[in-house]
Amino acid sequence: MKNIFRKILMGAGVLALTFGAAACSDDEDLESGGDSGSSQVDPDGGEGEGTPDQFGGRVFEVINLDYPGLERVKSLYEAGNRREAAEALLTYFRYRTERVNPAVSPFPSVSSKDMAYARAALKENKYRFLSIESVNEKENTPQSYWNDKEKKIDWRFWPKDSKGNRSNESRYQVHRHYWFNKQARAYASTGDEKFAQGWMEVYSDWMVQNPRPTEALDYSKDPSWADVDEDTKNAMFAWRPLEVAHRVQDQTELIYYFSNSKSLTAEFWAKLLVSFAEQVQHIIDFMTPEGNHRLSQGTAVFYAGMLCPEFKDAEKWLQKGTEVLNEAVVAQFHADGMHRELDLGYHMGALADFLDLLDLARVNNINPFTPEYMHQVENMVGAVMDLTYPDYTIPNMNDTRHQGTGKRSVMQRNHRRYFKTFPDMQGLEWRATQGKSGERPAHLAAAYDQSGYYVLRTGWDANSTMMILKNGPEGLGSNFHNQPDNGTFELYINGRNFFVDSGCYAYSGDSQTIAMRNWFRATRVHNTMTCGEEDPSAVTRNNIKSQNGKLIALSEHQSFGDRLFDVLVTENQGYADLKHRRTVYFAQDLIVLFDEGIGSAAAPVNVNYHFCDKKDFVTVDEARNATSTSFSDGNNISLKVFSNEALRTRKFEGRYSIDTGKSSPRWGQTSTIDKKAGERACFVTVITSGQLFGKEVEARITPDTQAAQCMVRVDGREYSLSNNLE
């Protein structure tokens, strides 16, 4: 099968060459490092224009000349015919069939957007290189990296976003070369040699301007704040192992697509292979000790070893990559299946990597993974299925950035892929086919108590009600991707997320960007309890100090009055002198939150709520301690807070962010009581929807009891609620 696949790809390449020849241009003189012809190499061992002595031996030092199929290369090299040996090496790679990359398609489809990005990166369009934060929003095109004054590509260009802020991500991501993959597919799809020429030109220039550092650098430091010279800063951006891993993994795909280009030369190919080996070794030398970065790096090394067996170190690469990946399912994931960074976006990214690796190993008839690996990957799939809303959107918690990772089309495609790998998982076929076949999942509530994610739902259909509550441990990697917000929740009702999380805005960058990130991370801008701060403008001072969330109880279908409630009880010792216990009583159109602040603190204690992303449809009534929505489709909620103590509520303007560097305003409310030392601060919040929306609500807390006991009256019916912890 793999040989047939490769022959089809070769046929596509030959056709591309035939029909693409007319599109080639002979006047593509290169002003910034040049294509393969801009750096001439002396086959007798000299160097030209700063290019390494490829034919003098470097390329033959990294390639295993005893590998089957390289007999002619070895013979020519040993006879001293180095240029001919290099040409034979290129010919070998053009026709190699030993290993198959399932990510490569013989007839790749290219979206109009990706084709635009591929063309934007060409010289004729001033090298507009795609990185997530370098896109000019007005023109919807990447910003140019061409320095017209110096007549060269400026790899140190630092784009600003629409608000004038700079993020480190744009500096990092330009060195991932996202556009190369799009150019490779554009070339394979159209046969237009401009894409291959553009790749060779720009990558040659990148190699000259961004050589591997000769000294060991601390890549864990923030380059924008590091006290080092500009050359070192740039090296820290360009050679951080995560960026190198992106380049290496993509290059295992690029060599399939571009190897048939008639513009390709043995000189460039030799440089490419030497650089490839150098970058894989760099990953191994500076691999991150833990976290999602290590996983990405191990994945890239595995790809290199699996797909490039011709290299002398290929077996070492495959062994190292396998070691990291088998280790990662234990070191980076809780036994319940969630990534230890506690961020669903990164969780799904890691899961995609693991599935790619399974596909890669399967098509190449190599299976280096342990049974524990397979079991844990299945757990990862289960976590995504449980934490996905019925309409195939996902929570915006932590650093997930809902806009990209959580698009409905992406999540639907993900579920189809999960089902392909695990067809026997209960309920997965139903989700993968959007209910068209298979049996719907049998369970409703789900507790991921090691990672601290809890799910309550009334069903799996789009008109169901579903709550996701987060109350977990410290996240991997100093909590970088995990926000200090234990006890927070989102609530989906009939296709609308009424309490979408604030998000993260950005990761890193200049001082303005960091200030914005800190705002979005603040405990106060989440749907949970805070202590000691009532002023909505001072959101960052009193973040909870500790995250060590505990599950106290989860029981389904508890009878209270004429209704069945699911009851979830969690605790978190957020402050040294205040523990937050949150009890959720969950039913279809009636949800009650009983919040207790327990400890010696004598300070204002607040419960905070942040409402829908549609500000104009949210009304906060401070006098009634209440908020309601007014959507014309009739899908609305009302929320009201009660306490036995004097209660005051403030309306404030918050924000939410579902995409990097972008945010929108929304309304929120903070309800506060003054807690006395040794006494509990207790709140009851009643949320109604559906047929109970707008009905009269009353609540009172039963005093002198350690149970979360209260009486709630809605539309004339009373519910005596208690979590029975006494």
Task: Write up this protein.
It is a single chain. The chain is an alpha+beta fold. It has 19 helices and 24 strands. The strands form six sheets. An eight-stranded antiparallel sheet has the order 11-12-13-14-21-18-17-16, with no helix packed on it. It has a five-stranded antiparallel sheet with strand order 5-6-7-8-9, with no helix packed on it. Helix 5 (112-120) crosses helix 7, helix 7 (178-190) packs parallel to helix 10 (241-258) and helix 13 crosses helix 15 (371-386). The longest helix has 20 residues, at 266-285. The protein starts with a helix and ends in a 5-residue tail after the last strand. Mean pLDDT is 87; it is low at 1-52.
Overview features:
726 residues; 19 helices; five-stranded antiparallel beta sheet; single chain; alpha+beta
